[in-house]
User: Fold these one by one.
Assistant:
Number 1:
Amino acid sequence: MAEIGGRREQMENDLPNGFAITSMERLVGLARKASVWPVTMGLACCAIEMMSAGTPRYDISRFGMEVFRASPRHADLMIVSGRVAHKMAPIIRNVYDSMPEPKWVISMGACASTGGMFNNYAVIQGCDHVVPVDVYLPGCPPRPEALINAILVLHDQIHYQEPLTEKRRREVARLAEQAALEATPTHMQKGLLA
């Protein structure tokens, strides 16, 4: 019996300080990353690839994302797939604001990330002018495997993000959004044509 007590004391001395807090943070990160629910936000041709990622061939349900939510109040991930028109921007922002915290955004495709080939007055040159983006996914259109890779990158961000810094994450998102709003609008940029 004394040997068991001595072993217990040795284990307690070998454990680093804050072991319970670190384990709780990892547990919360694991729970968050295993239950990410995307909201339905298909805007153009990239939406077809996003929908096919949910089919049995690619099966994103392996990652706890089997159902695309129709209500933003039940979702915590927005996958902006396709070009974002100026008329659609307020709707995207409204859906994003309706999602509960914590929430994440994946910009899927060249059009959602940079405006793609549509460098005109009707298309916003990147959805990061409307919502803060966590992961950019390039391609025209990106394959479902690329979307799954972007989801895995987001899972790593979620898993290793400390829950105690949520207030700081919101502050950084607010500052990034403010900087994007203060940036020079695309229609005023002259580039090589000036």
Note: The longest strand covers residues 77-81.
Number 2:
Amino acid sequence: MTTTADAPTIASSAPSRISRLRVPELDELQTTAVRGFFAKQQRDEGLTSNWFRALSLNEQDLERLNGYLLPLLGADGRGGLSAREREVIATVVSGENRCAYCHTNHANKLGKVAGDWSFGQRVAIDHHQVAELTDRERALADIAVLVNNHPQSIRDGDIDRLRALGLDDHQILEGISIAAFIGATNRIGIALSVPPNVEYTGVPAADRRNTPDR
């Protein structure tokens, strides 16, 4: 019988372009920090992300952006929100904005953090239907949607809900900041028409082996 995991393996080649604007080759880059960032990404992930490549046209802007974005997503091992909570926020917001690159990327990362590829995909589709979300994650996802779509509608009660679930004010600000900043990155990706890396699509091999026949 055909498994449900067979279908998403169609992506096999890189897209013909990764931005509406010119994208520098890696050996053209002049900024040490930016070159180091891509070298590290290649070592750690075996790829260079299309979104960061698209932004490398303005190297100094990318360097400044990385100085804020990467720690905000927990790349520096900081405390505060968990890696899974950060990726829940990023995945939900990217889905709200229908950003192809960010939605696929963060759903993939959430699946890796959670140890369950399907979890990331289901949160990406509709977090309200994902029973495995903790109460904290659900509340963070809900306020992230408000930050992205209707920030004027946020009330004290929304903040009190987060506090009642054990989040302190530092963590609440962190969650709001992630939602707002991911919304900005979504808009950049959409405007430049950045496609997802093919590595972010399809079911990982381990998950294909563990998916039962239907």
Note: Residues 1-12 have pLDDT under 50 and may be disordered.
Number 3:
Amino acid sequence: MAQYGPTVMVPIDVKKKPREQKVPLHNRWHPDIPPVAEAAVGDVFRVEMVDFSGGGITKEYSANDIKFADPFIVHYLSGPIRIVDKDGIPAKPGDLLVVEICNLGPLPGDEWGFTATFDRENGGGFLTDHFPAATKAIWYFEGIYAYSPHIPGVRFPGLTHPGIVGTAPSMELLNIWNERERQLVENGVESLKLCEVVHQRPMASLPTPKGCVLGKIQEGTPEWEKIAREAARTIPGRENGGNCDIKNLSRGSKIYLPVFVEGANLSTGDMHFSQGDGEVSFCGAIEMSGFLDLKCEIIRGGMKEYLTPMGPTPLHVNPIFEIGPVEPRFSEWLVFEGISVDESGRQHYLDATVAYKRAVLNAIDYLSKFGYSKEQAYLLLSCCPCEGRISGIVDAPNAMATLAIPTAIFDQDIRPKASKVPIGPRVVRKPDVLKCSYDGNLPTTTNLSSSSTS
């Protein structure tokens, strides 16, 4: 039976920057980043973490901190943690590491978070062509509930979860990542028609020493320079798990992670109080500082036993996730549909990304009829417990995606009625979310059939 209470601590001081932490943080994946702690199978151990920006986003009423943030440097991870069995034998490549989330929450005394969009010139988001300016909303926590002075009229329970849980890649796997992402960058937008519709940029974030944090490895040494030029960014989820942003991985969940290096070198970070499916504004959950109480098991040889490679090597596998029993309960939902026809009216073939973009845009425009600005609706759909689905993927030519919003999170009835939109008390338009001006030159999109631009 597990010992009561954490046996290992990986602590965080929220008043200190990532490089100043007593237990060093890292923001890259590399097999040679050394562990900062060791935990044994069956032990419950506590990991604390700063928000994804390393504490760089403030509670100040300004969006400038997010306008100039670099989203491709961030995700400061706590760890790596070496995992051993009861005999002290470490997890081995080919094993399956089972990570159970026993408990989690915001750090005591730091019960707040934020949701934001990055500037179009600096990463943007899913709808960056519609919403090019940096925005920010601050949320405060009351037990399990969140509310924001910047998005009034909503209150909802958080499904708290870590955005990132992953193991270290082997050098072979790291080389696979870097090569395929390098090809994507070199081929450019012209090779991928979807980029003309979703406007994501950059297409991938390749290794760079800029802003690199490598835990115990001392900056300026030859070892640091070598690893910094090889280590993968933490932005996308990959074969090792990583930034999967699965909102349902809360208390009682289990993550079955492939092991690629001795000891597994487990890392976690990017704590979210709440998130909607897709995290559409990119900085889109309620980002916060928090803690995780974890317990691990090792399934020897579990990769070959349970994970089937979907690629040219045995390393092309993906984790398995077991959802815990603790989730908010909602009985009534308003569901918005999208099909794979873009804003210009162009038909795409079974494209679920275009369909989901349409569903999100439809939901934003609808909520704006009830007193919300479109920026408020965009941030809300990124962090409230809404649910996204691929509802149809075989009926050519239209893929169909849906976005379901729980109606109980609003203090007004947002369902359509014969009496039309209510004219009684409504959400005031001020205060709005915190905004910056957009000063760049990248193209933006206007919905030609809408009464107002986004």
Note: Helices lie at 64-67, 171-187, 195-198, 222-228, 302-306, 352-367, 374-383.
